[in-house]
Amino acid sequence: MIDVLATPDAVTPHAVTPAASTPLTALENERLLRAFALLEERFAEAWPAARLAKAVGLPEKKLQSGFRVRAGTSVHAHLRTLRLHHAAQRLASGASVTDVAFDVGYDNLSHFGKAFRAQFGVLPSDYRNLRGAPNHAPPATQAR
């Protein structure tokens, strides 16, 4: 079953499409790249497109179209992917599902579980158990 699990790689879709193909000026392109960086740095925060656009100084429509061209997805979908990939990395190190869900920005465990399963094909707990380190060290054996 481990073979079927997706392995999270670095999420850098902003590098997929060259800047020349976007309908943005050089300044707007810089701001779009800043939006990608801001989401990467602060992925656990709530980032509606309007808030992100304001934070980087882009009109919301330019931000949305820039994301569609550069990442092939919406701001919201990109943020969800970032969160889930960070979650997978933490789960693989044996962190608790609850801690990970809240740490990456989910406030509802059910939503986290559904999103994680949709992304990776397994529940977060199964992913942790199959890929992650054990939460507790095994009991020490006594020499006889």
From TrEMBL:
Span of domain HTH araC/xylS-type: 33-130
Superkingdom of origin organism: Bacteria
Key words of the record: DNA-binding, Transcription, Transcription regulation
GO molecular function, one term: sequence-specific DNA binding
Keyword DNA-binding part of the UniProt annotation: yes
InterPro entries in the record: Homeodomain-like_sf, HTH_AraC, HTH_AraC-typ_CS, PchR_regulatory_protein, Tscrpt_reg_AraC-type_HTH
Keyword Phosphoprotein recorded: no
Protein name: Transcriptional regulator GlxA family with amidase domain
Organism, scientific name: Pigmentiphaga litoralis
